[in-house]
Design goal:
Layout (H helix, E strand, L loop, with lengths): L4 H4 L6 H6 L32 E8 L11 H7 L3 E7 L4 E7 L13 H18 L3 E7 L4 E7 L2 H17 L12 H12 L5 E6 L6 H13 L1 E8 L11 E6 L2 E6 L3 H25 L3 E5 L4 H8 L9
Parallel strand pairs: 3-4, 3-6, 6-7, 7-10
Antiparallel strand pairs: 1-2, 4-5, 8-9
Organism: Marinobacter mobilis
InterPro entries: DUF58
Protein name: DUF58 domain-containing protein
């Protein structure tokens, strides 16, 4: 069954909640033919290759078969025309990279960025599982890379979701672990060492700490693999409120900002918007298809909308 509304409002993700997202993960394969309204169609999806074809069987020629698929050796040996038939490639490895760094422990409305990332990562894992792929991934914090080797089984999906929930629930404002802005590059480098070709890599992150090195790593990873980025963002990054007071913390420093003061609001708005657009620009330059997911709304409907799959309105 789909995730319940009470699940969505939970501060942190639970294993049961992520497992229940299986129903929401019965979406079309990211590699399949996309609807015209999908953000993966056309220009945005030009780097998603789609599935290849694997040889299935030899069978007798039937009227209408493509003559390019004639198997001349079998035809010559038997004296009857035979064609090769092909089936869509299955059992591709899919890696889901889920960001659970301290920068993700923020949310101004419905969800924390870390929890939204957990939801999106779970849906991506279920989509791959129902497409017949082997599912694995890396859950990363500021100091740790927790790796799950791809395997085609429901238990392996459960293992991945369990680790996502564990790291999500371990996030705390009392955590004194220093931020590691180079961690995302380390995760992508780890993928490059294992995902040599024809794998699917879903990166779910706010992409804090991206740099020109990140750009090069993404391009290198996408050269022989299908890479899809889910950019998790908080609405404060694009539109600050006109009034109210907020405390901004960075390591041990805390600053209280009054949005009623035009100067304070403008300075913070410029900083957050610049950071958001730098990430957006870098992902565009990487030519990796990317979908933006806001923490202000449930994640699954946003994925459906991005894929052009809005549910029909109930009367």
């Amino acid at each position: 069954m789909p995730a319940r509304q009470d699940d969505i409002r939970q501060v942190f993700a639970s294993v049961d909640q992520l497992m229940r997202l299986e129903a929401d993960g019965r979406l079309p394969d990211f590699h399949g033919r996309q609807r015209a309204t999908s953000q993966l169609a056309g220009r945005h999806g030009s780097r998603i290759r789609g599935r290849g074809l694997d040889f299935d069987q030899l069978r007798h020629y039937q009227r209408g078969d493509d003559l390019r698929h004639l198997d001349w050796r079998a035809t010559q040996r038997t004296g009857h025309p035979f064609v090769r038939s092909f089936a869509e490639e299955r059992d591709r490895p899919t890696l889901v990279l889920c960001d659970q760094r301290m920068d993700m422990l923020f949310g101004s409305s419905l969800l924390l960025k870390a929890t939204a990332a957990a939801h999106v990562a779970a849906v991506a894992a279920w989509v791959a599982f129902h497409a017949g792929d082997r599912v694995g991934g890396i859950v990363f914090t500021d100091q740790l890379l927790d790796t799950v080797t791809p395997h085609r089984s429901r238990q392996r999906v459960s293992d991945l979701l369990t680790r996502i929930a564990r790291h999500n629930q371990a996030l705390s404002t009392d955590n004194t672990t220093p931020r590691n802005e180079g961690q995302l590059d380390r995760v992508i480098s780890r993928c490059l060492a294992t995902a040599h070709h024809d794998q699917t890599v879903c990166i779910v992150s706010d992409f804090a700490g991206v740099s020109e090195r990140t750009l090069g790593l993404l391009r290198q990873l996408a050269q022989h693999n299908d890479v899809l980025a889910f950019q998790i963002y908080d609405p404060l990054a694009v539109d600050l409120p006109r009034s109210g007071v907020v405390t901004v913390a960075e390591d041990e420093a805390r600053v209280t900002l009054d949005f009623g003061h035009d100067r304070s609001r403008a300075e913070l708005a410029n900083f957050l918007q610049q950071r958001f657009h730098e990430v957006d620009d870098l992902l565009r330059r990487s030519q990796v298809p990317h979908l933006k997911i806001s923490t202000a709304e449930p994640s699954v409907p946003q994925i459906r909308q991005a894929l052009g799959l809005q549910r029909e309105q109930q009367p």
